[in-house]
Amino acid sequence: MTVYLLLGDDEERKSRGVDKLRAGRTLEAYDASAIGPETIVSACNSFSLFGEGPFVVLRDLDAWNAAQKAVIVDYLEDPSPGSDLILLGKKLGSRERLLSAVKKSGEVHTFEQPTGKALVKWLVGHAKKVGLDLPEDVAEDLANRCSGDKMRLLQETEKLALYVGEGTATHNDVAALCPPDIQSNIFAFVDSLAAGERDRAIELLEDLIGTGEPPLRLTFMIRRQFQLVARARALIERGTPQK
């Protein structure tokens, strides 16, 4: 029996890791937010008609509390031979028993998603693999529209590759095919306002208006942001310690 713990926020790399470990076997996937640990233990103890050990994947491990994770810790003390268990989550505390148990009997890997220029570089490289000529400035535009979500970037890059063909992707292509992540862009817009980043704020505002975002909602968000800034300034002037 082998157990793997894949942590971090890079869902794309974790997905590739699962595919590599799977090696063509039948996958039994579960979500921790929908089932309990007893279901996972039962799945690990089952075998197919052909005698093949199960390949069990548990997503969203963070949804379980300590008591639920403890069930898996107990199982790992006497696991079913021939079964593979893959646990996917964002983060585990350094003192958590499950982390120690997996380190003892299996492997722990952490995949952190790249950001900023590193994400743009990855995106340009991925685009090249699917036959798309994606300039860095256009890649940055696409990354911003997707709020840096690598899984969505994979989908949008494939769409662009089909749309552009053998040509070079442009900002107009990105604007035509890839709608911005409105919720994230609203917060990015008000943050840019508060930081005094005028050009960035105007660019985000134009995107939001272009997607039909109600002006009244934008006005409310602007007002709320400056109320928070004014409140923070008043606290600082009164000598309130910063936390």
Structure description:
The chain has three domains: 2-110, P-loop containing nucleotide triphosphate hydrolases (Rossmann fold); 116-177, Orthogonal Bundle (Helicase, Ruva Protein, domain 3), CATH 1.10.8; 182-237. Helices cover 56% and strands 10% of the residues. It is built from eleven helices and five strands. It has helices at 11-22, 37-44, 66-77, 97-105, 116-129, 136-145, 150-164, 171-177, 182-195, 198-210, 215-237, and strands spanning 2-7, 27-31, 55-59, 84-88, 107-110. The protein has a five-stranded parallel beta sheet with strand order 2-3-4-1-5, sandwiched between helices. The longest helix has 23 residues, at 215-237. The termini are far apart.
CATH architecture of the largest domain: 3-Layer(aba) Sandwich
| Helix-residue proportion | 55-70%
User: Which consecutive residue ranges, at least 5 long each, have pLDDT under 50?
Assistant: none
Sketch the major β-sheet. Answer: 5 strands, parallel
Kindly state the number of beta strands: 5
**Number of self-contained structural domains:** 3
Look at the structure and give the CATH class of the largest domain. Answer: Alpha Beta
Q: What would you call the quaternary organization? A: single chain
Shape: globular
| Termini gap | 46 Å
> Which strands sit side by side, in order, in the main sheet?
2-3-4-1-5
Rg to the nearest angstrom? 23 Å
Quick synopsis:
The chain is α/β, with parallel strands linked by helices. Helix content is 56%, strand content 10%. It folds into three domains: 2-110, P-loop containing nucleotide triphosphate hydrolases (Rossmann fold), CATH 3.40.50; 116-177, Helicase, Ruva Protein, domain 3, CATH 1.10.8.60; 182-237.
